Amino acid sequence: MLRGILPVLPTPFRPDGAIDEAAMRRLVAFALGSGVDGVVFPGFASEVESLSGEERRRLLAVVVDAVAGQVPVVAGASAASLEETIAHCRDALAAGVGSVMIQAPRGIGADREAVTAFFRGVAEAVPGLEIVLQNAPAPRGSDLDPRTILAVVRDVPAVRWVKEETLPSGPAITAILAEAPAHLAGVIGGGGARYILDEYARGACGAMPALELADLHVALDRAWQAGDRIRARTLYMRSLPLLVLQALYRMRLTKHVLTRRGVLHNAEVRAPTPELDPWSTADIDGWFDEVADLLTVMPPAAAEAVGAR
């Protein structure tokens, strides 16, 4: 089952721009040490559009090997065409991953029949998959309405989960769960966990945020599941300033924070994202310091750096 906190792993790069397999192992170790319930790779937060097919395959193999069966791995398999998506799904199966996350290509639009035919085509070409239908907002996603999603789920039993991250995500989650067929195992929230409490209140079974606050998000999830709504809300409110900034700076913020935490050795980014200037960096560092007492997984050197600020 996919539930709880399943972060999307960033792609680490060396200073020369090449992928960094050793750093990917550190990211997985950090995720596991944080108590996550699964990991996702690659996704939007992995700068997936900047990765070659070979880089995706190599890093997914590293992730699977480093996870070593301790938690589920979800392989991102979205692509611009049905044929490419099928190829990514086969790569996932070859790596030992049976759960894939797929967004309908923007090129087919949001037509109900076209989207259903796409997912049916994937399921028929690669039997045995469990699919997470990712519904991202425009312009990167197709912004599918709940009726279209329900039509796909009913027609394609291989779709076992929906990752709903349109804006606002809450009403869509409510609509999907109200009429979900029995084989749909759950709806997972996205959007960087910026709306996680509303998503959980509406019945979402988990969230797929970025990685940098994984231990805080796990603590929030556990508090919610234990019925401690006050603790969950407190953790959410303290995380929110960083998550708001993350919406602007995306993986640059993720990697900057992970360097602060001693997990990454640099914050190299391939994807076109806003640069961090001294003012934005200071803003991020200030809010990071505000939540440092909640971060339980931190190498000693990183902890000393936080204490010295």
UniProtKB/TrEMBL annotation:
<dbReference type="GO" id="GO:0008840">
    <property type="term" value="F:4-hydroxy-tetrahydrodipicolinate synthase activity"/>
</dbReference>
<feature type="binding site">
    <location>
        <position position="208"/>
    </location>
    <ligand>
        <name>pyruvate</name>
    </ligand>
</feature>
<dbReference type="InterPro" id="IPR013785">
    <property type="entry name" value="Aldolase_TIM"/>
</dbReference>
<comment type="similarity">
    <text>Belongs to the DapA family.</text>
</comment>
<keyword id="KW-0456">Lyase</keyword>
<protein>
    <submittedName>
        <fullName>4-hydroxy-tetrahydrodipicolinate synthase</fullName>
        <ecNumber>4.3.3.7</ecNumber>
    </submittedName>
</protein>
<dbReference type="GO" id="GO:0005829">
    <property type="term" value="C:cytosol"/>
</dbReference>
<dbReference type="InterPro" id="IPR002220">
    <property type="entry name" value="DapA-like"/>
</dbReference>
<dbReference type="Pfam" id="PF00701">
    <property type="entry name" value="DHDPS"/>
</dbReference>
